[in-house]
User: Fold this.
Amino acid sequence: MARIAGRFGRVEPRASARAYLLGLLSQAERKNCWQLAEQAGHIRPGPMQRLLRYARWDADAVRDDVRVYAVDHLGTDGGVLIVDETGFVKKGRASAGVQRQYTGTAGRIENSQVGVFLAYATSRGRALIDRRLYLPEQSWCGDLKRRQAAGIPETVQFATKPRLAWEMIAAALDAGVEAAWVTGDEAYGQDPQLRAALEARGTGYVMAVACSTRVRINSGRTPVRADTVADRLPANAWQRQSAGPGAKGPRYYDWAWVHIGTGEHRHLLVRRNRTSGELAFYLCWSPTTVTLAELVRVAGVRWSVEECFQAAKSQVGLDHYQVRHWTSWHRHITLAMLALVFLAAVAADAAPKRPTDPHRPARSREPISLTVPEIRHLLTTVFGPPAVTAARLLSWSTWRRHHQATARYSHYRRRSADETGG
Assistant:
């Protein structure tokens, strides 16, 4: 809280922000304003709702504090920036940016919002350090009435997801985040403008691409599909290397790399599953000469963002919000990011200094290092709220049921009016 206290001009929203963060770190079943207010001992959810919607504070400034905090505690050599998106399944059409669209969260097309995120990963840990809410072009950008109802600023215009990713990368680099590499999945690797922007900035990348991607071999003279290049590789072109530690040990794959284009620092990297034979492809560029092992390391780091999403949703309620407004979305997401990076920082600072050895878990019975879920569990025990009286529990139960009855009444009236034409 000392990091962000100065972002609040009044004591009331500052106190609410502290209670909100403690609620996100708590064992509350759902991390929405109702349950966070009850967790904090409030009589009603008003203070939490005002914090997200009406209180005067700048979520982008707090986001900057999150980024600095992450670098201070997790920063070390070999840092990588990772771009990816995650979906938030929603009902209705009033939430900012919501529409029927594909989301990997559900694995299909759903009515959802999509957030594009930037993660920062090092050998000390990983955390989310920036976010953008994707605003669909057809259903939102040109609908002035809908934009106004959701509180979307006039300055916000349509931007592709790779464009949003580049804005976050550039902001991080401008802020002094030391990261020599950027990685991302196919949605971002297929975008030539993003790759060109990274090259112009002198930042290396290892970006996943589709098997149909055409590359130029033979010093740039011959265009050919990436999967065709892989099919023509001799057996001795493949090397077994680990893409980093996994839950069950080092993640070993077969890897091959091929010079493409006319520069010696541009490669096609191919990963082959040693069991199924499934292939994955990456376009790589670096400002200086690098080894295959370094490209493999960066490709393996990409999965850190998935771990961030999983921890953010399961531990600090990243997707538990029940808000529709543009400002409210950014405020909740930013506070959830702050809660997550706090847990990551505690885990990094508490980790014992041990020599790097990927085979150590197979030879040692020592306890594993403290994890984000374990730290949150310990914190909730130490900072848990005092026992709540039965009267307070019943008061909240009565309020919730009255509120739900009002919402049900409104829904029934609206549906009845639609059916009768009244």
In short: The chain has a mean pLDDT of 91. The chain has 16 helices and twelve strands. The first helix runs from residue 11 to 24.
